[in-house]
Amino acid sequence: MRYTLLIYQASAPTPDDPEAWGKLPEAEQQAVYRDYQALNQTPGMEPGAPMAPPQMATTVRVQDGKTLTTDGPFAEVKEAIGGYFTLEADDLDAAIEIAAKVPAARLGGAIEIRPQREGY
Question: What's the whole-model pTM score?
Answer without folding.
Answer: 0.81
